[in-house]
C-alpha cells in the first residue's frame, strides 16, 4: 500500500487532462453536508471524465467508479492533504497555476474545497455508480446526417430553382453578397463534361451534334451518353485507384514489379461502368473472398487491402520482422480509415489521437480485423474452373508421383551399392573442392585459340548445370611474364547463353567474365562459356571466380560452379580436356552422392533411368501445357496467432492489453456499433468491419463519398481534405449541402451515376468559368461557386488527349499494362524511362503499369502521384519543366507528326481546312480570324509538323474551362 506521504507522483500529470472548467458547477455551502451526486459528481464529470472514463484511460487512469478513484488510492479517504487528486488541482504557490487541468481554466477555490470536504468526510461513493463524461460537442463529421430540405433563398434565379444543389449553392453565395455567373456556351460545356466523365476530348462530330441539338434536354442526353460510355470507368476508376494507393510494385528498397496486380485495376473500371453500388464495393474490398467465394469478379476486390507498398525483404531478426509486419498492417488500417471513413486512424497507432476522438484501442481494434491479411497472390477461379482443372491434372499427377517413386527407388539402390566402395573412390579426390572466391587449374602448356568452361553441376544442385554465376574467367600464358590472353582488352571475346533480365538483354552478358572487373557477373542460361582468343596462344593455366569477395554468402538464389571441366581447341571443332574437378573433393554431400552414383551405375541402370526420365519429362510437359488457374495479387488470409494487443507506443515489443475487432468508440452511440468476441474467425472480422462502414446509421461513409464526387467535378471538395474529416482537416464550405448529398447517396442505393447526373445538371456546374475581379475579391478560390472553377488537365488527361487528337490512341481496354520504362530486376529493381515510346504504349494512361518511385517524364511532370501513398486530391503545379517536356519530348514530336498526317488525310492540302480541323480536335471550337491567319502563316513558313507541335503545346489544350 502506498504511503500517503509518497511523492506524486510522476505519472499523474499526464493522467489528468482536465478540460472545460465550469466555475459554477459542484459547489457546496460550508454548512451544507456534501452530497456526492449533487456536489462531487458534476465536478468529476465536467473536468475529469472527458479523458479518464473506463473506455478512455488517458495515462492508464480511469475515474468513472469508486474503485477507480478510491480503490487505486488517487483519493486517500479522510486525508485530502495526502490525496493525489487534491495535489494536482491545487496551485503549488499562491497565485500560480495547478498542474491540472493542462487546458482550460483551473478549478475554482470553491470546487477544490468541495473535493477536500468530500474526502475528509469519508469520500462516500454510491455503490455500483459509474459516472460518464459531461456533454461535449460532437465533431461535425461524427454527427448524424441532417435531414434538412433544400432551402428556398430569396432572389434566386428561376433557372436555379429546379435542382436542389443550386438552391444550397445560391443561398451560400447570396449570403456572401455574390451572384452566379452566366451559363457556359455549348462547346465549353461538352468539352468540360467529356473530360470530367470520360477523360477525353469530344470529337468534332460529337461537338457539332450537341451544338445542333435543339431539344430542351439536349444537355441531359449528353450526360447520359457520357455516363454510358465504357471510357467513364477508365476515368472514374482512375480517381478511385488514387484514393486506394494502387501501385504495381512493392516499393521499399527492392521495389520489384507485381505483374498480376492489374486485375484489380480492370475490376474497378468494370465496377464503375456497371454502376455497382458503393456499399457493395466496400464489402468486396474488405471481404470479397467471404461474400463472393468462387466469383472472381467479387474476390478481386480484396486487392484493395494489399495494393499499397509493402516491405518484402525477409528478416531473420524477430524484432525487425515484427516491426515490418506491424508496418504492413498499419498501411491497411490507414487505407481503410481514410478511404471509407475520412479519418486519420493511423495517428492513433502510438497513442490516442491528439486531435480526433480516436483511441489507441480503436486503432488496434481495426488492426485486429485486418491482422490475418497477407500480401500475396491467390488463385481466383470459379468452382467449375477448379473442378475442370483438378480433373485434368489428377491422372497426370498420379503418373508423375509413380515415376518419381520409381526413379528414387532405383537411385537409392545404386547409392547403397556405391557406399560399399566409397572409401576407394574417395581416395582419388586429392585436391580441395571448388572455391567460389577463386579456383585455379594448371596444366601442361598447350596451343589453343579457343578455351571453354563446361559446367557439370551447380554447387547448390549437382543435377543442374544452367544458371551458374561467374565473375571472371582468366586464361594465362606460361613463363616468367604470363599474360591473361582472355581479357577483352587483349582481344579476347566471350560467348555463352545468358539469363535475360526483363528489358535489359545484356545485363548478365558473358562479356562480363573478361572485362577485368569483379562484382558484376555472367549468369548463364546454359552449361558452357567459350572464350575466343585474339590469336592462337600457348596456355598453361586457367583461373575463375564466382564470388571473389565472398559477399554473396549462402543466398539460395546465388548458384555457382560446383563441378566442371576445362577444354581447349585450336579450331573450335576438336576439343581436348585439360583440367576438371573430378579429382577435387566434392563441394558438399549432394555432390559426393552424385559422384558415387556415377561410378556405380551400370549401363543397364542408366538405360532404365533414361527411360523413366523420358516418361517423366512427357508427363511434366503435359502438366505444363494445362493453362494454370489465374493467380491474382489479391492477398491471402490466415488466422492470426494469438490475440491482438495494443502496442504501447506503437512498439510490437511492448504488447499491452488484448483487443478485439470493434467499431470506433466515437461512434459507439450508433445502433450499428459492435464489438466481436476474441474467437471470431478472421473472415468474420473483416466482414463485420465492412458492414459497419456501410451501415445505415454511419454518417461518415456517405459524407466522404459525396465529397469525393464533388471534388471530382469542381476540383475542390465541399471539405477541402477529402480523406481527413477530423479536426486537422477542413470543415465543409456547404455543410447542409454535403449532408443532403450524402443522403442522396443512400437514397440512390449508393449508385454513383445518378449522383454524377445530379451534380452535372446543376446550374452551378454549368456556369461560365470567366474571371470576375469583384467576386474574386470576396471568394478568391471560388469555394462558393460564383463561377465554375477552371482547372488544368491531369497528367493522364494530357497524354490521353494528345493521343486522341493525333488519332493514335489505342482503344484496347483491360489486361496487363504497358510500360513507359525499361525494367531490370536483380534483387532490386531498376527503372529507366523510355526515350522513344512506340505504338505499343499508345493505350490510355490508366493502363500504364505504375511502379512506385518511378519517373515517367510527361506523367510525372504533370503531377501524376507516386502510388507510394494515397492521393485523394491531385496536386496541380505550373513549372518550366512541364513546358519543356511538352515541347521537346519525343512523344510530343511523334504525336505532332501523327496529327499532321491526320490533318493531311482528312483535310487535304488546304492549310485553312487543316487549321480549322486542328482547332476543332484540340479545343472543340474553330479558330478566330487572327488565329487562322497566324496558323496559316506558320504552316507556310515552317510546315504542318511545326504547326501541330504548336497546337499540342497550347495552354488551351491542357486547360479545362
From TrEMBL:
Molecular function (Gene Ontology), one example: electron transfer activity
Family annotation (InterPro entries): Cyt_c-like_dom, Cyt_c-like_dom_sf, Cyt_c_Planctomycete-type, DUF1549, DUF1553, Galactose-bd-like_sf
Domain of life assignment: Bacteria
Cytochrome c domain segment(s): 35-123
Keyword Transferase attached: no
Record Pfam families: PSCyt1, PSCyt2, PSD1
Signal peptide per UniProt: none
UniProt cross-references to Gene3D superfamilies, sorted A to Z: Galactose-binding domain-like (2.60.120.260)
Name of the protein this chain belongs to: F5/8 type C domain protein
Source organism per UniProt: Tautonia plasticadhaerens
Top-level taxonomy: Bacteria, Pseudomonadati, Planctomycetota, Planctomycetia, Isosphaerales
Amino acid at each position: 500500500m502506498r504511503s500517503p506521504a509518497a511523492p506524486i507522483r510522476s505519472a499523474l500529470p499526464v493522467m489528468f487532462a482536465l478540460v472545460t472548467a465550469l466555475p459554477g458547477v459542484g459547489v457546496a455551502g460550508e454548512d451544507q453536508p456534501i452530497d456526492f451526486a449533487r456536489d462531487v459528481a458534476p465536478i468529476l464529470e465536467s473536468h475529469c471524465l472527458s479523458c479518464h472514463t473506463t473506455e478512455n484511460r488517458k495515462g492508464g487512469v480511469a475515474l468513472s467508479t469508486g474503485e477507480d478513484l478510491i480503490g487505486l488510492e488517487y483519493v486517500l479517504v479522510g486525508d485530502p492533504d495526502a490525496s493525489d487528486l487534491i495535489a494536482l488541482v491545487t496551485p503549488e504557490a499562491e497565485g500560480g497555476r495547478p498542474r491540472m487541468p493542462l487546458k482550460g481554466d483551473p478549478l475554482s477555490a470553491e470546487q477544490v474545497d468541495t473535493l477536500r470536504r468530500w474526502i475528509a468526510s469519508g469520500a462516500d461513493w454510491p455503490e455500483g455508480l459509474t459516472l460518464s463524461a459531461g456533454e461535449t460537442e460532437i465533431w461535425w463529421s461524427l454527427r448524424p446526417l441532417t435531414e434538412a430540405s433544400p432551402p428556398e433563398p430569396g432572389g434566386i434565379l428561376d433557372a436555379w430553382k429546379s435542382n436542389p444543389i443550386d438552391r444550397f449553392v445560391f443561398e451560400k453565395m447570396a449570403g456572401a453578397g455574390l451572384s452566379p455567373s452566366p451559363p457556359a456556351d455549348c462547346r465549353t460545356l461538352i468539352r468540360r463534361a467529356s473530360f470530367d466523365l470520360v477523360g477525353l476530348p469530344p470529337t468534332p462530330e460529337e461537338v457539332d451534334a450537341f451544338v445542333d441539338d435543339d431539344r430542351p434536354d439536349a444537355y441531359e442526353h449528353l450526360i447520359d451518353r457520357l455516363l454510358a460510355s465504357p471510357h467513364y470507368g477508365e476515368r472514374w476508376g482512375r480517381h478511385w485507384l488514387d484514393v486506394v494507393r494502387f501501385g504495381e510494385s512493392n516499393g521499399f528498397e527492392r521495389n520489384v514489379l507485381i505483374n498480376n496486380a492489374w486485375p484489380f485495376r480492370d475490376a474497378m473500371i468494370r465496377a464503375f461502368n456497371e454502376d455497382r453500388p458503393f456499399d457493395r464495393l466496400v464489402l468486396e474490398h474488405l471481404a470479397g473472398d467471404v461474400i463472393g467465394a468462387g466469383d472472381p469478379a467479387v474476390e478481386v476486390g480484396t486487392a484493395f487491402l494489399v495494393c499499397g507498398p509493402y516491405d518484402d525483404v525477409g528478416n531473420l531478426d524477430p524484432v525487425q520482422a515484427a516491426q515490418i509486419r506491424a508496418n504492413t498492417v498499419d498501411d491497411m488500417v490507414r487505407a481503410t480509415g481514410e478511404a471509407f471513413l475520412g479519418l486519420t486512424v493511423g495517428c492513433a497507432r502510438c497513442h490516442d489521437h491528439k486531435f480526433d476522438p480516436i483511441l489507441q484501442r480503436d486503432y488496434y481494434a481495426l488492426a485486429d480485423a485486418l491482422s490475418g491479411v497477407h500480401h500475396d497472390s491467390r488463385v481466383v477461379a470459379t468452382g467449375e474452373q477448379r473442378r475442370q482443372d483438378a480433373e485434368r491434372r489428377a491422372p497426370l499427377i498420379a503418373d508423375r508421383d509413380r515415376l518419381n517413386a520409381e526413379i528414387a527407388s532405383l537411385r537409392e539402390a545404386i547409392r547403397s551399392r556405391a557406399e560399399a566402395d566409397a572409401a576407394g573412390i574417395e581416395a582419388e579426390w586429392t585436391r580441395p573442392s571448388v572455391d567460389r572466391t577463386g579456383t585455379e587449374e594448371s596444366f601442361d602448356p598447350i596451343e589453343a585459340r579457343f578455351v571453354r568452361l563446361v559446367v557439370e553441376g551447380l554447387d547448390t544442385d549437382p543435377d543442374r548445370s544452367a544458371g551458374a554465376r561467374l565473375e571472371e574467367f582468366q586464361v594465362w600464358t606460361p613463363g616468367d611474364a604470363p599474360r591473361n590472353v582472355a581479357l577483352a582488352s587483349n582481344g579476347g571475346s566471350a560467348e555463352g547463353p545468358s539469363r535475360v533480365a526483363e528489358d535489359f538483354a545484356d545485363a548478365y552478358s558473358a562479356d562480363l567474365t573478361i572485362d577485368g572487373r569483379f562484382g558484376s557477373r555472367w549468369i548463364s542460361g546454359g552449361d558452357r562459356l567459350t572464350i575466343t582468343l585474339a590469336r592462337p596462344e600457348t596456355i598453361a593455366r586457367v583461373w575463375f571466380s564466382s564470388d571473389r569477395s565472398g559477399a554473396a554468402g549462402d543466398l539460395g538464389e546465388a548458384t555457382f560452379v560446383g563441378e566442371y571441366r576445362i577444354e581447349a581447341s585450336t579450331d573450335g571443332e576438336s576439343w581436348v580436356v585439360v583440367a576438371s574437378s573430378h579429382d577435387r573433393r566434392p563441394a558438399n554431400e549432394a555432390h559426393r552422392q552424385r559422384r558415387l552414383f556415377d561410378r556405380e551405375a551400370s549401363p543397364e541402370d542408366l538405360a532404365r533411368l533414361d527411360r523413366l526420365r523420358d516418361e517423366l519429362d512427357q508427363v511434366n510437359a503435359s502438366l505444363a501445357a494445362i493453362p494454370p488457374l489465374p493467380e491474382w495479387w489479391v492477398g491471402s488470409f490466415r488466422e492470426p496467432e494469438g490475440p491482438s494487443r495494443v502496442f504501447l507506443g506503437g512498439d510490437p515489443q511492448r504488447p499491452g492489453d488484448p483487443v478485439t475487432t470493434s467499431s470506433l468508440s466515437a461512434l459507439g452511440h450508433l445502433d450499428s456499433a459492435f464489438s466481436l468476441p476474441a474467437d471470431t474467425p478472421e473472415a468474420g472480422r473483416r466482414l463485420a468491419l465492412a458492414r459497419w462502414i456501410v451501415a445505415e446509421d454511419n454518417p461518415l461513409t456517405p459524407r466522404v463519398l459525396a465529397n469525393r464526387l464533388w471534388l471530382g467535378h469542381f476540383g475542390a471538395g465541399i471539405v477541402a481534405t477529402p480523406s481527413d474529416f477530423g479536426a486537422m482537416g477542413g470543415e465543409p464550405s456547404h455543410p447542409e449541402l454535403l449532408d443532403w448529398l450524402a443522403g442522396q447517396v443512400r437514397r440512390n442505393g449508393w449508385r454513383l451515376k445518378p449522383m454524377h447526373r445530379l451534380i452535372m445538371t446543376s446550374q452551378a456546374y454549368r456556369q461560365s468559368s470567366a474571371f470576375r475581379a469583384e467576386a474574386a475579391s470576396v471568394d478568391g478560390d471560388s469555394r462558393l461557386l460564383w463561377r465554375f472553377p477552371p482547372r488544368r488537365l491531369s497528367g493522364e488527361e494530357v497524354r490521353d488527349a494528345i493521343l486522341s487528337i493525333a488519332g493514335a490512341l489505342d482503344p484496347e481496354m483491360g489486361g496487363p499494362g504497358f510500360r513507359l520504362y525499361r525494367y531490370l530486376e536483380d534483387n532490386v529493381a531498376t527503372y529507366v524511362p523510355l526515350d522513344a515510346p512506340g505504338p505499343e504504349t499508345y493505350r490510355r494512361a490508366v493502363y500504364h503499369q505504375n511502379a512506385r518511385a518511378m519517373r515517367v517524364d510527361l506523367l510525372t511532370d504533370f503531377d501524376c502521384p507516386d502510388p507510394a501513398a494515397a492521393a485523394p486530391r491531385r496536386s496541380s503545379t505550373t513549372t518550366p519543366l512541364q513546358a519543356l517536356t511538352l515541347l521537346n519530348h519525343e512523344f510530343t514530336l511523334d504525336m505532332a507528326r501523327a496529327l499532321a498526317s491526320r490533318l493531311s488525310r482528312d483535310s487535304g492540302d488546304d492549310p485553312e481546312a487543316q487549321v480549322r480541323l486542328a482547332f476543332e480536335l484540340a479545343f472543340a471550337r474553330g479558330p478566330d480570324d487572327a488565329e487562322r491567319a497566324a496558323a496559316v502563316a506558320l504552316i507556310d513558313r515552317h510546315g504542318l509538323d511545326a504547326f501541330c507541335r504548336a497546337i499540342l503545346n497550347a495552354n488551351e489544350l491542357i486547360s479545362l474551362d
